[in-house]
Amino acid sequence: MAEQKEADASQQHQEDGGIKRHEDTGEEAPAGVVQAAEQSEAAADSDTKPSTTTSDRHISIQTTLEGLEMLVDLNGAGRKSCPLCPEEKFKACYSHKLRRHLQNLHWKVYVESKGSRMCICHLPCRNPKPSLSGDQVSGRHMAHYHCVVCSVTIARKTDMVSHLKRHVNKGETEASYSGSSDVQFEEPTPSGQAYEILKELGTNVQLLPNHTTPQKSDTYFNRKMKTNRQLVFCSIAVLAEERNPLECLDAFGATGIMGLQWAKHLRNSVRVTITDISDICVKMIKENCELNNIRVDGGSRGQRAPEKAGSEAETAPIATLEVAKMDANVIMHLRSFDYIHLDPFGTAVNYLDAAFRNVRNLGIISVTSTDTSSLYAKSPNVTLRHYGCHIVRTEYYKELAARMVVASVARAAARCNKGIEVLLAVALEHFVLVVVRVLRGPTQADESAKKLRKLVHCQWCEERVFLKLGNMVDDTHPCNCHGSLPGKTAVQLGPLWSGPLFNTGFLRRMLSAAVQHSMDDIQPLVKTLICESECTTLKSLVHGSSALTNQVECGVVIKTLQSGEDGGPADQSGKRKSGEESGNVVKKLKPEVSLEHPPFYYSIHRHSIRGMNMPKLNKFLQYLTEAGFRVSRTHFDPTGVRTNATLQQFKSVLTKYSVPTCTNAGTSAQMSEDGEEKEEEEEQEEVPTASSSPQQIRGASSHLRTEVYLWIRSRQQHHGGLHVQSPR
Q1: Before 495, cis peptide (omega within 30)?
Q2: CA distances for 533 relative to 229, 423, 506, 537, 546, angstroms
Q3: Which one of 234, 326, 365, 726 counts the least CB within 10 Å of its CB?
Q4: Where do Polar residues bias regions lie (predicted)?
């Protein structure tokens, strides 16, 4: 009688009574009801002791339809009940109707995971929702799915899909399935099977199978950010030459690859601190330290010594670092550092205030931003919300993104009465990296704040110019398109950083560090950055004598590693020079190198002329140099040209050395004759230079366009199909 009453209680969805009967009497009740009750209890209260009676999957999880049909003897006579539905929802019926019910309702409504189907279940596995009075209503129960990994019950299909993705991102598979819900990732499958070993710059790191999934994985690792990690390493190697030892912080450790590289290659020159908010990341960082023979301060290596007393002694650790489980903002508020690297997932604006609070004077802060959708003008509303800037898509959008990040860094530094000097700004496909040196004092903060200006951009010809400093409203226009076209053509962008983006002396020392540590991948990039900082070509950089022995960084004269005359032992002290002495150094540099760095660049393909063949890019750079302009290539755009020439001067030189397109081989003889006549006219024509007036440049450009138009028009009379537009 007692068994019959408890069986009735299990039919009324009282799972506690069913489990008690199972424990006390030991008699077996219906498998679906008892197992569902056990799983629901384990999911509802994870603190209680899990049941260990079974570790099988729920009956709703099947791999084939035959397995689902085998839950009921469909070949027998009589009416049969559905194993996944209660009696009040689906009454007992004959085999043919029950087979259709299993196929259409349960087998076709499922969530799939690695060959297994989690069919929908209508059994009373979940507690019914209480009424307003607090009493449970024994009415309709919600349909749900049973997780194939942790056996938790989830009602919505989309929620179950997201739940399974979280299991995959944590490395949990079907092998970690258990009937209880207290299985944690702290004890995963054996490390030799679950982890992948990756070696980068002589440093080994363990990676989870899901390390390529961003934001969903705690230990996210991006192989495409190798260039970013090497640039940061070179910058910290340069700073380590100035002061020793160096307090460094990797605020977002993840796998700890960056901090491990610092400690392994720079050894006693740096004191590395790696922090992360995730327990899984902290555990993996410590395991990676042991993998690279690096001692962790406060780690568990000292406790394992008695276990290995009988074996041979381990080799001495090559370096020491500190691993902390702490929020990045908290540790930057509590401690002071010489070098801070911020590389969160997305934007880093939430951590800039804390970074500038305790950073030491003349220290370095490197910021990596990966929110390329907002930086590259794909989400203008997000850009305005995060960076406080208004931008549009332009031909120089990558440099626009770099200047926008520098502007946010400068504002954060100014709030802490600090100024910045930009040492490096790189914008590639996947990230924007900005490295700045911190200058303490309100005077330095004011100087940096003055370099935040609005940019006037013409949306027709894409010419641009920074507004002048001051409060007076002026009608500054970068070009004359507003006078020749109806409506307004210019927009204001920013505020942006209007100062230089590179420091030549720092980049040269970064190149020396890259050569010293055999970083062949970034050496061409660093050479391009050096040329871009000096606004010169690579040929003149290698063969010319423009390399200065001493470079000035924020009033500090630092000797670079070059073959030249020594600057004296006093230049290597690294102490701040007095105002007169540093001013004299700047005055000495003025005749040799112009201190104004040309902002932005022009794309040679964007401003090409229809029907004309452009010269090769290196030849075009030579033509601009011969015309008296400073010119260099840029890493922002492979077809971009950084120059101090205006857009009109740029187009005039491009038009001068462009050749009309040949449309037919039969006209080659006549083209040669016309070419000879044109060469004679070109000899008499004056090439526009940097000293030419705008009227002369516009006149020469208009004259050339008219001649080209007339020549193509004459060709059109003999050969049809060539569309020509009249020049403006």
Answers
A1: yes
A2: 21, 10, 10, 10, 12
A3: 726
A4: 662-671, 689-699
- How far is 653 from 626, CA to CA, in rounded Å? 10
Query: Within 13 Å of residue 699, how many CA atoms lie on the same side as its CB?
Result: 8
- What pLDDT shows up at residue 521? 92
pLDDT of residue 163: 87
Closest CA to 423 of 441, 432, 414, 436: 436
Separation between Cα atoms, residue 689 and residue 215, nearest integer Å? 53
Q: Which residue has 């929020």 as its token pair?
A: 327
Q: Is the pTM of this model over 0.85?
A: no
Confidence of residue 545 (pLDDT cuts 50, 70, 90): very low
Given a contact cutoff of 8 angstroms between Cβ atoms, the answer to whether 670 and 660 are in contact is no
Residue with tokens 């010419």: 463
What mean pLDDT do residues 359-367 have?
Answer: 96
Provide the 3-class DSSP secondary structure of residue 290: helix
DSSP calls for 420-461: EEEEEEEE-SS-EEEEEEEEESHHHHHHHHTTEEEEEEETTT
Rounded distance between C-alpha atoms, residue 433 and residue 426, angstroms = 5
pLDDT tens across 705-726, in order?
666 666 666 666 555 444 444 4
> Which one has a higher pLDDT value, 42 or 390?
390
How far is the C-alpha of 219 from the C-alpha of 196, rounded, in Å? 12
| 110-113 and 116-119 strand pairing | antiparallel
Cα(574)–Cα(721) distance, rounded to whole angstroms? 69
Q: 651: closest CA among 479, 459, 532, 476?
A: 479
Q: For residue 691, what pLDDT band results from cuts at 50, 70 and 90?
A: low
Nearest-angstrom CA–CA distance, 62 and 56: 12
The total number of residues shown for the chain amounts to 728
pLDDT per position as a tens digit, 150-189: 878 888 888 888 888 888 877 776 534 333 333 333 334 3
For residue 269, give every residue at least 6 positions away whose Cβ sits within 8 Å of its Cβ, in sequence order, or none.
240, 244, 245, 246
Integer Cα distance of 271 and 249 in angstroms: 9
- % of the chain at pLDDT higher than 70: 65
Q: Which of 175, 167, 220, 179 lies closest to 193, judged by CA?
A: 175
In terms of DSSP bridges, do strands 550-553 and 556-559 run parallel, antiparallel, or are they unpaired?
A: antiparallel
Phi-psi category of residue 49: left, alpha or beta, with phi > 0 → left and psi -120 to 50 → alpha: beta
Q: Within 10 Å of residue 467's Cβ, how many Cβ atoms?
A: 16
User: What DSSP designation does 377 have?
Assistant: T
Q: Take residue 150 and report the two structure tokens written for it.
A: 């942790």
Sheet with 464-466: strands ordered across:
464-466, 452-458, 490-497
CA distance 651 to 463: 11
Is residue 641 within a helix (H) or strand (E), and if so which, with residue range? strand 640-643
CA distances from 672 to 70, 676, 678, 683, 689 (A): 88, 6, 10, 16, 28
Q: How many CA atoms lie within 13 A of 373 on its CB side?
A: 5
Which parts of 485-545 are beta strand (E)?
490-497
Distance CA 83, CA 71 (A): 7
**What is the spatial distance between Cα 646 and Cα 629, in angstroms, rounded to a whole number?**
10
- Which conformational region is residue 299 in: left (phi greater than 0), alpha (psi within -120 to 50 degrees), or beta? beta
Alpha-carbon distance of 408 to 383, in angstroms, equals: 11
**Partner residues linked to 337 by β-bridges:** 359
pLDDT exceeds 80 at position 240 = yes
Dihedral of CA atoms 517, 522, 528, 531 in degrees, nearest 10, equals -20
Q: Give the span between the Cα atoms of 236 and 368, in whole angstroms.
A: 15
Closest Cα to residue 651, out of 617, 607, 687, 621? 607
**431 contacts: CB under 8 Å, gap ≥ 6:** 225, 228, 368, 369, 370, 372
